[in-house]
Amino acid sequence: MTDTSRTSSTASASSASVPTVTLNDGHTMPQLGFGVFQITDLSQAQKAVEDALAVGYRLIDTATAYGNEKAVGAAIKASGIPRHDIFLTSKLWINEFSYEKAQAGIDQSLEKLGTDYLDLYLLHQPYGDIAGAWKALEEAQQEGKIRSIGISNFWPDQVKNLELMARVKPAVNQIELNPWFQQKQSVDFLKNEGVQPESWGPFAEGKNHIFTDARIAKIGARYGKTNGQVILRWLLQRGIVAIPKTVHRTRIEENFDIFDFQLSDDDMKAMNSLDTGKSQFFDHHDPVAIENIFGSSLRQLNI
């Protein structure tokens, strides 16, 4: 009992140290969170989220397409942490991009997660009946089912097109952001529009030896930090929300240990110089990639 109480107290104190951003609808969002993409083993997903919450994370990010919403909901329930202390995000997949299907998809996410509201709900991709799906999100927000509504993987022109047809401006755009693909123009555009940029894949899934890159390691050595910690710190100092993913408790703790240092201006410039200007995954403007995203994901969902 004593050990559990000590852990809970430490986690509470740690989570209080996470900076927040204020969204354009007035809601606040932790700037560091925990993602569960590709954690398909449900027991592993639940354990990872339980560990993350124990360490102090209060932003948890999942999606319909991940297939683990139930595990995330079970972890939140098992944690004993009040629901209002957790910022919970999920996303609607493109097979449900119509007004009626989106309404049903929202309710299904709520049921799987075991909650009566989501803090943030995103359109996962910028394809299909965006207008119909967005209308459903706007209405769900009015009904109190969703507090903030947003988008994912939208390029600036697609963001602007949505804004022109929408009654409610998206609060967040979750996009690929990592040292190899920094999307400076997109980030600047989003900030100017009042849309919060959020990084998925902050570690580029380890591509191009990101965890051992000598240039990042040299920066980390000055602060006694790992490459991963430097990357997360760099994102936070750019005003970006980050949601790293790992199933290992030691890495979960390591990724959270980034609030006791700040990168110098020179080190920020050094990190900025690593940009290749190229996605580490796929081009969202490529018709073939779009077909692959839609087709492969539907097969995963058995649709």
Describe this structure in words.
The protein has 303 residues and is α/β, with parallel strands linked by helices. The chain has a single domain, classed as TIM Barrel (Alpha-Beta Barrel). Helices cover 45% and strands 14% of the residues. It has twelve helices and ten strands. An eight-stranded parallel sheet has the order 3-4-5-6-7-8-9-10. Helix 2 packs parallel to helix 10. The radius of gyration is 19 Å and the shape is globular. It starts with a helix and ends with a helix. The N terminus and C terminus are likely disordered.
Structural class: alpha/beta
User: Compute the gyration radius: what is it?
Assistant: 19 Å
The total count of strands amounts to: 10
Number of domains: 1
Q: Which SSEs are present, and which pair or pack?
A:
Layout: H1 2-15, E1 20-22, E2 28-30, E3 34-35, H2 42-55, E4 59-61, H3 69-79, E5 87-92, H4 99-113, E6 118-123, H5 130-142, E7 146-152, H6 156-165, E8 172-176, H7 184-193, E9 196-200, H8 214-221, H9 227-237, E10 241-242, H10 249-256, H11 265-272, H12 287-300
Parallel strand pairs: 3-4, 4-5, 5-6, 6-7, 7-8, 8-9, 9-10
Antiparallel strand pairs: 1-2
Helix pairs in contact: 2-3, 2-10, 3-4, 4-5, 8-9
Outline of the structure:
The protein is about 45% helix and about 15% strand. The chain has helices at about 1-15, 40-55, 70-80, 100-115, 130-140, 155-165, 185-195, 215-220, 225-235, 250-255, 265-270, 285-300; strands spanning about 20, 30, 35, 60, 85-90, 120-125, 145-150, 170-175, 195-200, 240.
